[in-house]
Design brief:
This protein is of the alpha+beta class. The strands form 3 sheets. A 10-stranded mixed β-sheet has the order 1-2-3-5-4-15-16-17-19-18. It has a 7-stranded mixed β-sheet with strand order 6-7-8-9-10-12-11, sandwiched between helices. It has a two-stranded parallel sheet with strand order 13-14. The N and C termini lie far apart (45 Å). 27% of the residues lie in helices and 29% in strands. α1 packs antiparallel against α2.
Length: 462
């Protein structure tokens, strides 16, 4: 479901539009008290942005989109650059939205996004019941938009997660179908010769990382394990990625168990970075962590599919060897050149907040001469002290990368690896870990991941 509203610079439209948006959110499953609280938030944003419109840019684009993961409300305009009041920093803190994101679009203006996880019971409860595996042949295929295929994918996810999967809308047939039709979420099912479902995996395109897709939603029910199902599904996902002309596929395996790492190693993925303190322990079903551990970690791994594209890199000395070794292992052509002045006229970046896990990502896609000033200005609008971890994606294809890298290191950020392949850039990963240390006692690491983690911890004295 997607609704787009174009508002002219007319204050009379604000109140009714805000109420309409709140009503739509309620109809999509947002709890009544949250929908009621949303109305004044939308009203305030629209009123403030209308004040900054002008004759050349007299419109505000408001979109409401519901997909397999969440409800997203975006407000975009080309008015005066944002001067948001301090109260806007309280949006995540007060729970007005599950995530709050500001995106500087450069010449295309600015955008605010509010995201909500919808507590909707979806389809009636599904249960496999007693199950007898009739044969162990594994046949993989793309999940169609038919109800029969979609319900099998949902049942597969349910068999592992119950109804505790982090994105509850994945249990709704219509939402699942809409995501498939978008082309940004591609689902695969494994069945045997008798038509019994053995497993599921998907690849998904993220807004901030075009050109590569994330391997996700990989599940194999207990009765189907030991037959190579996960490996065959991963191989099919890789083959599909090649057919789509993707630069590559990436994954973010959890590090409190080894299953995903083993699978990715067999699939030829290269460990390339870390997201230390990725989520709080309350966010996962497994709560058997050592006493004192409050957050757990995820890794990044990459499988580059485009072996022809040349990557022009401007690398800081500190992390040059780490990054070039990733490119060498993936057999991707690159050149390393001295840093210099960026050729970009404007800075482009976005803030992406996950309030449930008290973390934020800053995704930088362009470094202009005003970069430091713009980042500091936008950072001042948010209560970053309420966050426990911040991740920065810094484009290493920009000549200014080494200088900006040094700025973040001087601010106390650590180098935590890289993520190459996106059309938005090959990214260096930098993290601010705040006051929470890296707890290594809860890390379970496979070959490749262990060596990478040891190296990063040695480099950053963790």
């Amino acid at each position: 479901m997607k609704i787009k509203i174009v508002l002219t610079n007319d204050g009379r439209l604000v109140a009714d539009t805000a109420q309409f948006v709140a009503n739509i959110a309620g109809n999509c499953g947002l709890q009544k008290e949250r929908a009621d609280a949303l109305c004044p938030v939308i009203k305030t944003i629209l009123e403030l942005r209308m004040r900054d419109l002008n004759d050349n840019y007299p419109f505000i684009d408001l979109e409401i989109a519901e997909d397999i993961k969440e409800l997203v409300i975006s407000i975009t305009d080309k008015g005066l650059p944002y001067a948001l009041p301090a109260s806007f920093s309280k949006i995540p803190e007060l729970g007005c939205a599950d995530s709050f994101r500001f995106v500087n679009l450069g010449t295309n203006g600015q955008r605010i996004l509010l995201s909500f996880r919808i507590d909707n019971p979806g389809e009636e409860k599904l249960d496999w019941g007693a199950f007898e595996l009739l044969d162990d042949e594994v046949i993989c295929s793309v999940t169609s938009t038919n109800d029969e295929d979609i319900i099998e994918a949902i049942r597969c996810i349910y068999s592992v997660y119950g109804y505790e999967y982090v994105h509850p809308q994945i249990y709704q047939i219509d939402s699942f179908r809409d995501r498939l039709k978008s082309g940004r979420y591609v689902s695969f099912l494994a069945r045997n010769a008798h038509g019994q479902t053995l497993g599921h995996v998907a690849i998904e395109e993220l807004d901030r990382l075009p050109g590569i897709m994330e391997v996700c939603n990989l599940v194999t029910p207990s009765y189907a394990r030991g037959h190579g199902v996960a490996g065959k599904l991963t191989n099919m996902a890789l083959h599909d990625g090649e057919l789509r002309g993707l630069n590559g596929l990436f994954a973010r395996p959890a590090l409190h168990h080894a299953a995903s790492q083993k699978l990715l190693n067999r699939g030829g993925f290269t460990p390339c970075g870390m997201y230390f303190n990725f989520v709080s322990v309350q966010s996962v079903q497994d709560r058997t962590f050592p006493e004192g551990v409050s957050r757990i970690h995820a890794a990044y791994s990459i499988h580059m599919l485009n072996k022809e594209k040349q990557h022009r890199l401007f690398l800081p000395d500190e992390c040059r060897d780490f990054i070039t070794e990733i490119f060498d292992r993936e057999q991707v052509p690159y050149s390393v050149e001295p840093g210099g002045v960026s050729g970009s006229a404007v800075s482009k970046f976005s803030f992406d907040f996950d309030t449930a896990n008290k973390r934020a990502d800053i995704i930088i896609t362009s470094i202009g001469p005003d970069f430091l000033e713009q980042v500091e200005k936008e950072s001042d609008k948010f209560d970053l002290n309420s966050l426990e971890v911040i991740m920065v994606y810094l484009p290493m294809n920009d000549p200014a990368c080494p200088d900006v890298y040094k700025l973040f290191r001087d601010f106390g950020y650590i180098f935590s690896g890289c993520l190459p392949g996106s059309d938005n850039g090959d990214f260096i990963l930098l993290q601010n870990l705040g006051e929470i240390p890296v707890s290594r006692e809860c890390i379970v690491s496979e070959p490749g991941y262990k060596e990478m983690i040891d190296r990063l911890c040695t480099m950053m004295n963790l």
